[in-house]
Amino acid sequence: MTKRTRFIVFILIAIVALIFSLILSRGVSNEKSSVPLEMPNRNPIDNIIANSPAPKVTALVGTDKEQKTAGKLCRDDEMIMGVCNLEIRVGAKPLGSDAFGSTIVHLVEYRGDQRLGEVNRLYYELLVVKPDHNSVKKYTLYETGKEESPRYSGIKMINEKDVIIMSQIVEQDRLVYEIAKLDINSGKLTSSVPYREVLKDSEEYDDDSILSQFFDEDEYGKVSKMMLTTLKGKMWLIDLHTLEVMSPRHKLYPSYGDPGSAPSRNLIFPDPKLERFVYSVLIGDNRITNDYLIANAKNGNVITRFSIDESLQASPEVAWNKGGSLFALEYAKKGDELGSRTDNAIIVFAHSISVYNRDGKIVATIDAPSEERISIVNWLDEERLLIESYKTNYKGMGEGEKKDITYKTFHVQTGELSTYQRVKDGSLLDNAELIFGYAELGYGFSTQVYIERSGNQIWVPDMGGDLKRIGDEVYVSRRNGDWQNIFRLDDDLRSLKWVGGWEGNEWRKIIPGWLVSSDLTYKKIDLTTPLNGEGLPVLGSDFDIVDNNTSIMKENERTEHITLDGGDVRAVGKSRYGVLKMRSMPEEKYWDRWSESHYFGNYQIEFTDAAGGRSILPELKEVAFMEGMEQGEIKVYPFEGFDLLLLHTDQYKFNDRNLNVYAYVITEDGQAFPLDYRYVIPSGEVKRNAIPFGRLPVEVENGKLVYQSWQGYVWTPDLEAKTLKLTEVRHRSEEYESIWQVVVRYKYRLEQALGLTESDFPEGKLEEEELRSLFADDAWNNPGFQWFKDEIARIDEAGDPTRAFASPNIIGHYDRFGNIIVNFEFILAYSIGWLAHLEAVLQFKDGRWIFRDFGTFETEKVKQKYYKSSLDAGYYIKHIEDELVH
Q1: What is the 3-state secondary structure (H, E, C) of 293-339?
Q2: Helix axes 733-754 and 783-797, enclosed angle (nearest 10)
Q3: Separation between Cα atoms, residue 746 and residue 806, nearest integer Å
Q4: Distance of alpha carbon 515 from alpha carbon 517, whole angstroms
Q5: Dihedral through CA 836, CA 839, CA 844, CA 849, nearest 10?
Q6: Which site among 37, 202, 416, 719 is 20 to 30 Å from 583 CA-CA?
Q7: What is the mean pLDDT of residues 368-384?
Q8: What's the rounded Cα separation, in Å, for the pair 571 and 620?
Q9: DSSP 3-state of 814
């Protein structure tokens, strides 16, 4: 080798070494980057991206201020009581939450500090909460301009440490879609290149958006892949470990439904491993055909096509088994379709169910018995289906209701059919297994059943709420007006235990041992109430509710009102020892609010003793008062030597909101004075002149006042201290659950007797003679019941049916005779919220419950614009008074 050649080689080696050094240096620099996740300016790319380049990895360190991310969820005293609020920045709002195990994450948006010139910037943080460890960790994610706020943001915990962040952010002239993965332990952030960009001035920007997300969740809740689809049929399959994005170019699988009127309906049904999917083929914009195809989820390529017979119509949902080796479809004969109608489809009551392998070949078919229909409940294992077999009642317009349901298992390989023996009491099953209805086929089904495989027995509980499985626990959420109650299923006792409730809020997440509400209140699930040193029950911090009169005032302040001169008596209580009156003072404000009248002002409390002597008690200031149809009543409860009076500020008897209740005492020697409520919360003892307990049933028991609910609050009068002291909290889940079970079943009987047709009648309709036997003569001849029954028949005959149905938000309580007192509530006039009410007593007689009596029937006053022509004459403030006999 010459000197010249050696020199050239040396120079080349030096250049390579320099380049390698620069690359290495750059890599190290990127690994130590301290910038949060931000979206850089990008050049235009195709709005459908195929396999993406390698993602980038950064360390989410941030500034010195941002490094202080660790903190506590609750103060120590709050943690002991198990109730506290997650603190977020002032003005911030949570965009979404997800959980894995006992860890929960919240995506939060907040506006920048005006003092720092950040008013037009929006910032996004991820809060990681471990309530069992009382810890909160905060990560700064990205920021945008105020006018470029995300069109969509979502998060998903895919295992115990990794969170996926899905964002759609407007950047200059385009909408950019990106995925990022955050390790919540180390702060390492992995972000994909944008998998989609859409120009703002394109038709796609306004008309197409993410419709659905599918995950390959395993039995432990861990996820490794995600499939995203859009309304117009675009699709992406994303490896959540590597963030590799795969998308079929120019292959579209549109959804069904008009996004402007009916909910869009996804017609893609992937297998549990997201390897392939079944697609129900459309013609035009929204016509579902009898044609199906199976496609590869990675590239969208069609694997096979198949069709059902033209004489059949399939319910479009597809039920895959857990391993993804088989799927099932339900069919009805064309021209004889019957089922449950949704907003944009009908779920058929099937004549047949066919099972296909993953290549679309039929491997087995089961036909319904003559005069019956069948439906899928769920797969029991890889080769056995649990099905319902039932008779039907026709309701009109292609809709039906199930009756006489039996449960069977169908073995795909052998064709063997086994029938389960139905039991009425779940406690009779020793080794029962809870089976949920298939996720895509839950409409019109019982959402859960218990089966005992060894004895072929089944129990179908009526839990009547939204169910969610968290690990090995099952929770049920029920709405009751403005209240949401949460129950935990006791798997051994097959019963529900009340674990929490909230007014005007919702429990959005349930994790083992904790409830999390929409305003980020955390409440520990505990069926016991701790006691303080004095032996008094210590209530959660959520019990100390701020006075609600201000909220009622704000509710009315934009509505036109009248200012009154005062002097009117709003409520009267007649004790054995005198009369108490609530009288308005000057400048009282009045609003005409539908069925009740709203007042707001200061009120004088007058007492007149038995001899006619008059005195004035302390004035009530800035009180909201809801008046019903007649003058308000101050309820009187007799005790030995005195009467206790409760002044409810909500006098409209069919409201379920919690407004303040004031307590007074009138003694046998003619003394009258108010009582303060005394109770204990984590921060200490509280004394208030009113509590927002609203219209809870109240009883006198052994010299104490008991507010009845899922928990019984026992108050002990202390006349010397002038207080009502909370001395006991009773957990009454079993009692109230038994009431609920009876009332819900009997609301269907009442609906049938009235001639209402909008319910599915899960136990089927009764024969007329049997139905009539459930009504005592006093109930059947009640004038309100008979008027309502006749009016429904008249309107139905006129061809403009009410479509009324009993609200599921009904609840009752036991009276001292063991009867159930309940207000049945009916939603009228095409479900717009116009209500009718009928008071009732249910009595247990000769081994069954009957309608002992009905009381007052009443409909609400509704604005003229809500009327239907045939309803004008009869339903406007209809009030038929009748005494309720226990």
Answers
A1: EEEECCCCCEEEEEECCCCEEEEEEEEECCCCCEEEEEEEECCCCCE
A2: 50
A3: 10
A4: 7
A5: -10
A6: 719
A7: 92
A8: 13
A9: strand
From the list 448, 474, 488, the residue with the least C-alpha distance to 710 is 488
Q: Which distant-in-sequence residues (6+ apart) come within 8 Å of 500 by Cβ?
A: 485, 486, 507, 515, 523, 525
Q: What are phi and psi of 819, to 5 degrees?
A: -80, 160
Look at 70 and 700; give whichever has higher pLDDT. 700
- As a three-state string, the secondary structure of 359-382 is CCCEEEEEECCCCCEEEEEEECCC
Distance CA 337, CA 840 (A): 38
- Rounded to whole angstroms, the Cα distance separating 286 from 282 reads 6
Tokens of 437: 């209805």
Residue 59 CA from chain centroid, whole number? 37
**Residue indicated by tokens 């950064």:** 58
DSSP code at position 531:
B
Identify the three-state secondary structure at position 272.
Answer: coil
Of 667, 664, 673, 663, the closest CA to residue 639 belongs to 667
CA distance 58 to 35: 8
Q: Are strands 672-681 and 635-639 parallel, antiparallel or unpaired?
A: unpaired
Tokens of 353: 């169910």
Confidence tier at 554 by pLDDT (50, 70, 90): low
Q: Which residues contact 268 (CB under 8 A, 6 or more apart)?
A: 212, 214, 227, 229, 235, 253, 255, 277, 278, 279
The pLDDT score that the predictor gives to residue 349 is 86
Which contacts (CB < 8 Å, 24+ apart) does range 22-31 have? 30/56, 30/57, 30/58, 31/57, 31/58, 31/59
Q: Is 468 exposed, middle or buried (0-12, 13-18, 19+ CB in 10 A)?
A: middle
**Cα(499)–Cα(737) distance, integer angstroms:** 13
3-state helix, strand, coil in the chain (%, to 5): 15, 45, 40
| Residue 494 neighbours by CB under 8 Å, 6+ apart | 426, 427, 429, 432, 450, 459, 461
pLDDT computed for residue 315 by the predictor? 79
3 burial (CB, 10 Å; 0-12 / 13-18 / 19+) is exposed
At residue 46, φ and ψ (nearest 5 deg) are: -60, 145
Q: Residue 537 has what DSSP assignment?
A: B
| SS3 assignment, position 740 | helix
Identify whether the C-beta of residue 855 lies closer than 8 Å to the C-beta of residue 882.
yes
Which residue is listed with tokens 């195709």? 46
Residues 6+ apart with CB under 8 A from 860: 594, 595, 654, 834, 835, 836, 877
Give the contacts of 791 (CB within 8 A, at least 6 positions apart).
Answer: 874, 875
Closest CA to 641 of 669, 608, 664: 669
Closest CA to 443 of 596, 276, 591, 315: 315
Cβ–Cβ < 8 Å for 382, 325: yes
Query: Rounded to whole angstroms, how far apart are CA atoms 246 and 231?
Result: 18
pLDDT digits (tens, 9 = 90+) for 88-133: 887 788 888 999 989 999 999 887 765 555 666 788 889 999 998 9
Find out whether 185 and 133 touch, Cβ atoms under 8 Å. no
> How many other CB atoms are there within 10 angstroms of residue 7's CB atom?
10
Which secondary structure element, helix H or strand E, spans residue 393, and what is its range?
strand 384-396
* pLDDT digit string, tens, across residues 1-33: 444 444 444 444 444 444 444 433 333 333 322
Distance, CA of 313 to CA of 347 (rounded, Å): 10
Pairing status of strand 723-731 against strand 711-718? antiparallel
Tally Cβ neighbours within 10 Å of residue 405. Answer: 18
Measure the CA–CA gap between 734 and 753, rounded to whole angstroms. 29
